[in-house]
Design brief:
GO terms for molecular function: diguanylate cyclase activity; GTP binding. Pfam families: GAF_2, GGDEF. The chain contains eleven helices and 13 strands. By secondary structure, the protein is of the alpha+beta class. A hairpin with a 4-residue loop joins strand 1 and strand 2. The longest helix has 38 residues.
């Protein structure tokens, strides 16, 4: 029997699996070794003073319900740990005040604390029976062995989850402009590729708007980079307010932003559509800005707005065309400088 149990344990540990899958296999083996009616793993929330039964195996009439939460201070496990009595074959006499044990008709109780490798108290591994059941040395050894294996598995899964969260945060950070919170240049290019693929499939055109903030360097030089940063943040917020869920908005870097969207399927001609986009963006950018103690009126940005057919033009060419259109707009005469109030 011992050789069979060890073989099954070795096989289970050699297989990549979830904590739940491993625990359920170990509970089954623990039941065989101890000859108890129920085996289960609990998690203890010391802050909430609650014990939660995570996984249970019930092979006979005794039913330890999974998902059950009980006050920690009223449990058999708490009493057993406090009294350093992890086994009893006469629970009604040993702990007559324990109503939960009485309700479940627990006569024999075997438990051991589960401590994670870093020393943190996690919960308990238990086996119970309605009948008096002797505890063999082998049963006690297996109980402690399984508690250690479960603790290592839980710790490993926790570390893997933390690593995944950190990796996801790192990826999100690498795709996000730290100042404005908008997608950065890297994210923009990947998202635009996806939008072009969608437009190609739908046989729709794409509108690309390249935005360059005129006189931004003067704002920085005159008022300092903190004011300049606040200005960029507010620009991003204003642009975000006019972008739809399927539009792409991001900061290319410095004082340059990009807005890309599917061209609306309307009867208006191409020039009207582009002018409508231009007016909408300029109306958001133009206006009063409160930047700390500085109040200025910003007259608007240089905009390069083009409509692209993804069947004929790729992403790089589209951005180059929008950039060229922006520079043409910048060279126009009569640009009004910002005004400080």
């Amino acid at each position: 029997m011992s050789d069979m149990i060890l073989a099954r344990v070795s096989q289970s540990l050699a297989t990549e699996q979830s904590v739940e899958s491993l625990v359920r296999q170990l509970l089954e083996m623990l039941e065989v070794v101890t000859e108890m009616e129920s085996t289960y793993l609990t998690k203890v929330d010391l802050d909430a003073r609650l014990q939660h039964i995570l996984y249970a195996r019930n092979s006979k009439q005794m039913q330890i319900p999974e998902g059950l939460s009980v006050p920690w201070d009223e449990t058999l496990c708490k009493r057993a740990i406090d009294e350093n009595c992890l086994y009893s074959d006469n629970v009604p006499a040993r702990w007559p005040e324990c109503t939960a044990a009485r309700a479940l008709e627990i006569t024999t109780f075997l438990s051991t604390p589960v401590h994670l490798p870093d020393g943190t108290f996690y919960g308990t591994l238990c086996a119970t029976s309605r009948h008096q059941q002797a505890l063999s040395q082998r049963g006690e050894q297996v109980l402690h062995l399984f508690a250690g294996l479960i603790a290592q598995s839980i710790q490993k899964e926790s570390l893997v989850a933390q690593l995944r969260e950190a990796n996801a945060a790192l990826i999100a950070h690498s795709y996000t402009d730290a100042l404005t919170g908008l997608p950065n240049r890297r994210a923009i290019f990947e998202n635009v590729e996806t939008l072009f693929s969608l437009a190609h499939h739908l046989r729709q055109k794409v509108v690309v708007a390249y935005i360059d903030l005129d006189d931004f360097k003067l704002i920085n030089d005159r008022f300092g980079h903190e004011v300049g940063d606040q200005f960029l943040i507010q620009i991003g917020q204003r642009l975000l307010s006019v972008c739809g869920d399927n539009d792409i908005l991001g900061r290319l870097g410095g004082d340059e932003f990009l807005v890309v969207s599917l061209s609306p399927e309307s009867e208006s001609d191409r020039c009207d559509r582009l002018q409508q986009v231009r007016n909408q963006l300029q109306q958001q950018i133009c206006g009063d800005y409160q930047l700390g103690d500085i109040h200025l009126f910003y007259p608007g940005a240089s905009l390069g707005v083009v409509e692209i057919d993804p069947l004929e033009t790729d992403v790089n060419c589209a951005l180059h065309l929008a950039d060229s259109a922006m520079y043409k707009d910048k060279k126009r005469q009569g640009k009004t400088p910002f005004v400080v109030h």
